[in-house]
Amino acid sequence: MKTLEQPKKGDYSAFFSTYLKLVSGNNYEEQILKQADLLLSLFKERGEKWAETAYAEGKWTPKEVLGHVIDTERIMTFRALCFARGEKSSLPGFDQDPYVLNARFGQVPIQWLLDDFISQRIALLSMIRTLPEGSLDLVGSASGNPITPRALFWIIPGHFTHHLNILTDRY
Fold it and tell me: Which of 3, 25, 26, 158 could form a disulfide with 19 if both were Cys (CB 3.0 to 4.6 A apart)?
């Protein structure tokens, strides 16, 4: 895979700085695959009962966190594809809570969610390999803010790390 350099300030809104601070280096594919291994190990080590138990009232279960991560990665990937292809229309934001509620991740077997996560990661890497280099810096608008495909791709592992930290620290 070609090197995927990190985005520059101005390629994304300040909101995403929280996630982008959690990633380093330019070996994107290595990070994406390592994160997949970490996630699989965590869920295998902690087990099904852990995956179905929230750490506090009103908080998501680990299965719901995983489902949220998958949904978010799909949305970010879709946005990146749109902007890499020159989409000029502004894309809407999304409210994560109804997504998790309506998905009913608690009813989905954990292995299916883990398989879905791995499939999403493989599809993400496959798509990035096919994009022309110049398309990574085209600017689009999502949630009313300018953003590039490059930034969206790097937000994905940062967002994952944010939630992995919560899963390991609070659950």
Answer: 158
